[in-house]
Amino acid sequence: MAQINPSILSADFARLAEEAKAVEGADWLHVDVMDNHFVPNLTLGVPIVESLSRATKTPLDCHLMIEDPDRWAPRYVEAGAGSVTFHAEAAAAPVRLAREIRAKGARASMALKPATPIEPYEDLLPELDMLLIMTVEPGFGGQAFLDIMLPKIRRTRELISKHGLELWLQVDGGVSESTIERCAEAGADVFVAGSAVYGAADPAEAVRALRAKADG
Ligand code: DX5
Ligand code: ZN
């Protein structure tokens, strides 16, 4: 079954606990950490992740859009994240980092910006629990889905099958009721949705509607 991860980036930051509770039927809560260096936007850090992990029963899927994830990613596991995603473009030692995240007890995940190909990372896939393919340039919610990423999703799914791996394939950016079926058809199985969930009158219902579409 498809997993739907609402992105708290599109929620009201002054009411984070309530906004997290509003989507408690979701699989994971996607938390976008931005440092104003790796991406041109600034969001939240370790203390807020710690508070969020106490405020909701939904496990936290932390997406680190930051420089020097080798230094910071383990801190997010300690803060209570169940899954930590670092960017391939920012990690100095992705294998060591993935192993450290796993050793600390979280799922290890790596993200690729739209211009970063999957092929150089084929041999690293067994080290990961999830791969995130960005379907917008990271930094902001509410951007239009990049259709040109569909071939990369398809090629990644083929590599996962070829190696007989269990890892999840996540897409993030512009995922909505009108784009989720294309992502699922290309091979994604974990779907981040910010504006499509928090922009809806009933966020919990939006999660159910997205899941139904992804499952076809
Ligand atoms: C963008 C973030 C996304 C963002 C998605 O850099 O990584 O998680 O919240 O928002 P939507 O679903 O509105 O594109
Ligand atoms: Zn994200």
Automatic annotation (TrEMBL):
Its cofactor is Co(2+); a divalent metal cation; Fe(2+); Mn(2+). Binds 1 divalent metal cation per subunit. Its EC number is 5.1.3.1. The keyword Transcription does not apply. Signal peptide: none annotated. It comes from the Bacteria. Keywords: Carbohydrate metabolism, Isomerase, Metal-binding. A divalent metal cation binds at H30, D32, H63, D172. The active site is at D32 (proton acceptor), D172 (proton donor). Substrate binds at S7, H63, G139, F140, G141, G142, D172, G173, G174, G194, S195. InterPro entries: Aldolase_TIM, Ribul_P_3_epim, Ribul_P_3_epim-like, RibuloseP-bd_barrel. Pathway: Carbohydrate degradation. It catalyses: D-ribulose 5-phosphate = D-xylulose 5-phosphate. Belongs to the ribulose-phosphate 3-epimerase family. PANTHER family: RIBULOSE-5-PHOSPHATE-3-EPIMERASE. Catalyzes the reversible epimerization of D-ribulose 5-phosphate to D-xylulose 5-phosphate. This is Ribulose-phosphate 3-epimerase. It comes from Streptomyces gelaticus. The lineage of its organism: Bacteria, Bacillati, Actinomycetota, Actinomycetes, Kitasatosporales.
